[in-house]
Amino acid sequence: MSDNQLSISIPPALRTGRSKWTKPATYTGLVVIIALLPLLVSSPYMLHIFILTLIYTIAAVSLRTIITSGQFPLAHAAFMGIGAFSSGMMAKWLGWSPWLTIPLGALVTMGIGMLIGYPFARLRALYYAMGSLFFGMGIIYILYAGGTWTGGYSGLTGIPPLLPIGTSKVPYYYLFLGLAIVSLLALYRFEFSRIGINLKAIAQSHLVASSVGINEGWYRILAVGVGCFFAGLAGAGYAHYSLVLSGSSFNFLATLWLVMYVLIGGKDSFAGPIIGTVILVLIPEFARDLKIYTPFISAGILLIVVFLIPQGLVSLPRLIRSAFTERGKGKGITHAS
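Above: the chain sequence. Below: its structure as tokens.
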């Protein structure tokens, strides 16, 4: 029996079984390893960095959700600020529980995002980016001008904590790990639903998508709303973790960092922003002597990715496998000749 006949006789279920379970097993293993980190790392500072990584991961992936619609917003950190200040002010001035104000802050952010997204729905490319940039700058100045309510330039202090004061970082770590897992699962399901498919069709060609009955404006507004909800959720959680808020934490520079997380990791893959966030947040902490050079190192990584790995670091394993495959084929041809 020839090799071709043998391959045809293997049932498809057996041939695809390995690929079917590889990804779930890999993701489950990663989650288990991440859940065990507090047992391996006792430093409160490193746990703090891990918590920030989880928060920024939610924000970066939610930014990519909007990018899948073909738009490139430059105000995502400002939406994090809306969620953070909304939740913080409701908890401080109204006396509401943070467990209530955090989802309310996310909903407020979603509402504002969809409200602003309506007039921006017809803008594309550079015009959308510039419009969102000016909106984000306006939000920061509004926070500065909020006086006592927002803390002005001094920032909002005295925000009620999620957990009793004096609680170690470990409960916060597991709390934000759970929040990150739920958020990523929801965003993953959204992207690979019928709505997500329509968004990708709009991104490829809004004219073709409109010609087959896809409401371009509505879907783009929905993408902004969903992305802003999870950005607001991350910001609100951050508010009740840090207990102090400043408008400078959500300015244009903060948005640029989120953009870099997405681009360096890979904007065409769901895992891209996760990889980009982990690399750019954690690596400087393991090389603290070089931490002051973090912006330069990040810029260098971005240039390398843009010129050599345009699909982001998430595509690096595939490129390496392709290189070895091509090398093996080349050797086979040489031996055959």
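The chain is about 75% helix and 0% strand.
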